[in-house]
Design a protein that fits this description.
217 residues; mainly alpha; three-stranded mixed beta sheet; two-stranded antiparallel ribbon; 5 strands; elongated
């Protein structure tokens, strides 16, 4: 569902800005207004489908799905929640975190200043009926699951990730040995960084083992 913390209520929402999802258009201000059948997040009437019981446009759904995919990945491996600094020693985790941050920023840019009242949205959907332009499709099961929920774990994927992390750990251990044999501030700084990387890899390996045991049990 849409986060209501920063959204108000009203039968229609207006603001003067550029069109949703259109950053290449001219600079002429246009009035954005929610109307029955439009996306309740940005007001667009393009590619509307029911998403989590609300009419949402194609681009907003795509951004929401990107964030959901990152949350599922984070939950599957027991990693720190989304938000904060986008940093990770794991390329796949970094990719998910970066994509989720970009998707959230895109949603924030096109968000209407006030959310249409839920009652108005329900009435509009009811009036539209089966012949409406809005195509009702069930939300993906994973999207409605609580953040961090894991339904199934692909054992082969886990094995591949473990193999990659073990190779990374071997390289880190070699770097630590070199740093310990050296002296001076640069060597100590590198040693500290490598030890941090090792702790991160070990934590991820522990999370993967936990996920593997959960799938086996």
């Amino acid at each position: 569902m849409i986060d209501d913390r920063n959204l108000g209520s009203g039968a229609s929402s207006t603001m003067t800005t550029t069109s949703p999802h259109d950053t290449a258009a001219d600079d002429t201000p246009v009035t954005r207004r929610w109307s029955p059948g439009g996306c309740v997040w940005c007001g667009s009437r393009t590619d509307i489908e029911i998403y989590r019981d609300e009419p949402r446009c194609g681009e907003c759904r795509e951004h929401e799905n990107t964030i959901d995919a990152a949350r599922r990945f984070i939950g599957m491996y027991g990693l720190r929640p989304l938000g904060g600094a986008v940093t990770s020693d794991d390329d796949e985790e970094l990719e998910h975190r970066t994509a989720a941050r970009s998707a959230r920023a895109a949603l924030d840019r096109v968000r209407l200043p006030k959310r249409p009242a839920a009652a108005d949205v329900r009435k509009a959907s009811a009036r539209a009926g089966a012949s409406a332009a809005v195509r009702t499709t069930p939300s993906r099961a994973a999207s409605s699951a609580p953040s961090g929920a894991v339904s199934t774990v692909d054992v082969a994927v886990l094995a591949d990730r473990v193999t990659g992390l073990l190779e990374q750990l071997t390289a880190i251990e070699a770097g630590i040995a070199d740093a310990e044999a050296s002296s001076g501030l640069p060597a100590r700084a590198r040693l500290s960084d490598l030890q941090r990387q090792r702790a991160t890899v070990m934590s991820t390996l522990a999370a993967l083992e936990k996920a593997r045991r959960g799938s086996a049990g």
